[in-house]
Specification:
By secondary structure, the protein is mainly alpha-helical. It has helices at about 5, 10-20, 25-45, 45-60, 65-85, 105-115, 120-135, 140-155, 160-180, 185-195, 200-215, 225-235, 240-255, 270-280, 285-300, 300-305, 310-320, 325-340, 340-360, 360-380, 380-390, 395-415, 420-425, 430-445, 450-455, 460-470, 480-490, 495-500, 510-520, 530-540, 585-620, and strands at about 550, 560, 580, 585. It has 31 helices and 4 strands. It comes from Nicotiana tabacum (Common tobacco).
Length: about 625
């Protein structure tokens, strides 16, 4: 058909707008032309289509007028899209071979159609991209950010052929990127981050693979996008597909190993925010890597991280309740890193106590793990001194008692605290032991059994006996007996081996024996703890290297005739009593303080009992 006949197919307004100086008018005209070509394609009228192509080529693309040439190019692109699967027979009008071809005009139209779902259009578009990329004079890599998202979108197409073509095109572009000195990594990174979260497995893998190469190649240009990239990588570390997990871990390590400066666009706050969000992930591996990032940031950019401390501190505290022990231990590593500064150390311990107070299950399930690890990371004595200072003034007496009991059990049983126990053993002979004993004493007053344990550990046996003697009827309750049962069993462990060996010299350690007998008298005779302690006391030898001679009763348990004999107290000075200073410790004053605290607990207990009784009575009346 002639060009004249082609003119009858296209409205004059469309032809006029194709050469308009405004791009929007040219684009709208092209859309109308696309519709006309679709109708002609549906009717199978390829002669008219050929006439339209000739019209676009001869009257527009070869025109000396710039706007006409632009209209011709966008018109040819519209014809190509309108042809869909029928375009193959018209390819001999390949527009890239024309000197008038403008890739700048063509790319916007290509970009607008990249998300078309029609499989024929998709296949044709990928073909166009591949052909254009093969033309030496056209730099398609520079325009890749314009249609990259569309190519990734095709990776999840229902057609295997389209997926394969899109993957092939992407692979070719990735190879070009590796060999190109100039690539716009930033714009494409944003696209890849979005695609890394795709529901389609193959799309995720391809996106992560691209990100992996970008992290290696992007250099400083990619630094401002590190936070977005990290946000894409961390969830993929826990992907169900192993290939994705492997590439994600490799990318994560590469990213974390890069030396980036905040002055170069490295946004510490943004990356910290990503790590904080991922700390709430349902996947353990992701949470672990988020914590590794926090730790890395603290070590590399400590001052910048501390600026955002308030934003992450609560999340880190909540993470102490994590179901994974590995996560909890890493959280503690991060906390310990933060707590290198005195003010942050105090803040950490205060928040920790607060968390235990409001979540008793945390104390019960993770208390020992948390305290022990902190003692390793931050110095056991420092941790225990701070905890004691806080608990000394705790107004919630029930919680103070429970917390002290927990700390006491950890102190007596943890290998990490062996040095602390050794310090306490010297409480009556050196300044370091004395200071530590006194720093714990005030808070340990919240629990009689914890106090007795502390005294036995410090070898303050006379004071231990005095504490036992000070107990009254209401102190000997079920909770007390349960704790006493635990202590009796602990006395048989290596921790108290020194104490058991001291029983070989009953004359020298009279107050130790008296304290142990005091505990025995508090135990029900049928209890296992009573039998254990009674058996141990039966092994005390009937002789002594000192003047006192123990006499055995018919039961086999020794007693001591103190008449006329000198009694040696815990600091080996004769005739001492609990009111005399021992290594600068006024035990009389300390005992008085212990009694005052215990009286507060008794009054509190009575008040609680009264409140419960009144509440129960009120409920009965309502019924």
């Amino acid at each position: 058909m002639t060009i004249a006949e082609a003119l009858s197919v296209i409205p004059a307004a469309v032809l006029r707008n194709l050469s308009d100086k405004l791009y929007e008018k040219r684009k709208n005209a092209a859309l109308e032309l696309e519709g006309i070509i679709k109708q002609l394609t549906g009717a199978g009228d390829h002669d008219k289509i050929t006439a339209v192509i000739n019209l676009m080529t001869q009257e527009y693309t070869y025109s000396p007028q710039a706007h006409n040439r632009k209209g011709g190019l966008i018109g040819l692109a519209a014809v190509t899209v309108g042809l869909t699967s029928e375009a193959a027979q018209h390819l001999e009008d390949i527009v890239t071979e024309s000197e008038q071809f403008s890739i700048e005009e063509f790319i916007p139209l290509l970009r607008e159609r990249m998300n078309v779902l029609n499989p024929h259009v998709r296949q044709f578009l990928v073909g166009w991209i591949t052909v254009l990329d093969s033309v030496p004079d056209i730099d398609m890599l520079g325009f890749l950010p314009d249609f990259l998202d569309g190519l990734f979108n095709m990776l999840s197409d229902s057609s295997h052929e389209i997926r394969q073509q899109a993957d092939s095109a992407l692979s070719e572009f990735l190879e070009e990127i590796k060999n190109s000195p100039s690539v716009d990594y930033g714009r494409m990174a944003e696209i890849l981050v979005q695609r890394a979260g795709s529901q389609d497995e193959f799309t995720r893998l391809t996106a992560i693979t691209w990100i992996n190469e970008f992290v290696k190649l992007g250099g400083d240009q990619l630094v401002p996008y590190y936070a977005d990239i990290l946000g894409a990588i961390l969830p993929c570390i826990s992907d169900k597909e192993e290939k994705i997990r492997v590439v994600s871990r490799e990318t994560n390590e590469e990213l974390r190993g890069n030396e980036a400066d905040p002055a170069e666009g490295f946004d510490v706050g943004a990356i910290l925010s990503v790590a904080r969000r991922q700390l709430s992930s349902e996947w353990e591996a992701t949470r672990i890597e988020a914590l590794h990032w926090m730790w890395t940031l603290l070590n590399k950019h400590r001052s910048e991280v501390l600026v955002f401390l308030n934003d992450v501190f609560d999340t880190l505290l909540k993470a102490l309740s994590d179901s994974s022990d590995e996560v909890v231990l890493l959280v503690l590593e991060v906390h310990a890193c933060i707590a290198e500064d005195p003010q942050h150390f105090r803040q950490l311990v205060v928040f920790l106590v607060h968390s235990f107070q409001h979540d008793h299950s945390l104390l019960e399930k993770r208390g020992a793990l948390i305290i022990r690890r902190l003692c390793v990371l931050l110095n056991a004595e420092r941790v225990y001194r701070e905890l004691s200072t806080i608990l000394e003034g705790e107004s919630d007496l029930d919680f103070a008692s429970v917390m002290v009991q927990a700390l006491n059990l950890i102190l007596l049983t943890s290998t990490e605290l062996s040095d602390l126990r050794d310090h306490l053993k010297g409480s009556l002979v050196n300044d370091a032991g004395r200071d530590l004993f006194l720093s714990l004493y005030a808070s340990w007053c919240h629990s009689p059994m914890a106090m007795i344990s502390l005294c036995l550990l410090a070898q303050a046996y006379q004071h231990a006996s005095s504490v036992i003697q000070s107990l009254v009827e209401e102190d000997i309750n079920v909770k007390f007996l349960v704790q006493l049962h635990k202590l009796i069993h602990l006395l048989e462990t290596p921790t108290f081996a020194y104490l058991r060996l001291q029983l070989l010299e009953p004359g020298r350690y009279i107050w130790l024996l008296k304290a142990l007998y005091g505990l025995l008298m508090l135990l029900p005779q049928q209890s296992a703890a009573f039998k254990i302690l009674r058996t141990r006391l039966k092994t005390v030898p009937s002789y002594s290297f000192k003047e006192e001679r123990p006499v055995r009763t018919s039961s086999g348990i020794p007693f001591f005739n103190g008449g006329g004999g000198s009694q040696i107290s815990e600091d080996c000075k004769p005739n001492e009593n609990s009111h005399v200073m021992h290594n600068g410790i006024n035990f009389g004053s300390r005992l008085k303080h212990f009694k005052q605290i215990q009286q507060q607990h008794r009054l509190h207990s009575k008040s609680e009992t009264h409140s419960r009784f009144c509440s129960a009575s009120s409920m009965k009346e309502e019924v």
